[in-house]
Amino acid sequence: MNIVLDSWRFLQREAGLVIYGYVILENHLHLVATSDLSRNIQRFKSFTAREIIAHLESGGSSRLLELLALFKRSHKTESRYQVWEEGSHPQFIESELTNDASETGLYPPEPGRTRLYRAA
Questions:
Q1: Contact by Cβ (8 Å): 102, 19
Q2: Most CB atoms within 10 A, among 3, 4, 40, 94?
Q3: Please, what sign has the CA dihedral across residues 74, 80, 85, 88?
Q4: Within 10 Å of residue 68's Cβ, how many Cβ atoms?
Q5: What is the DSSP string of 107-119?
Q6: pLDDT at residue 119 above 50?
Q7: Quick check: helix, strand or coil at residue 61?
Q8: Number of domains the chain is built from
Q9: Lowest model confidence (mean pLDDT) among 17-31, 66-80, 98-112
Q10: Residue 16 DSSP SS3
């Protein structure tokens, strides 16, 4: 989980990612955020995949690495493993946000940012 959180912290500092909420589950995650999500999700997946593989290799987790090798798409010639599913599924959140986070569970975007997205 630290790999995921460290990646998000980096993107917050360096790429303007604003996180309003997230859920990390066993096999996927949900993120409510604003930024250049297409680019930042790509950076997130690339960094975390490399870090997860390095962690598994250093820990001798050969069975998990074998499974990740089985999941690898045949057109992926630059990598041995497939950590993340290809693509992402961003969805525009259309509801109006208020200044009362207890009402929506979310805070309004920073000035100049008008959209919130949920990426899976």
A1: no
A2: 40
A3: negative
A4: 19
A5: PPPPTT----EEE
A6: no
A7: coil
A8: 1
A9: 98-112
A10: coil
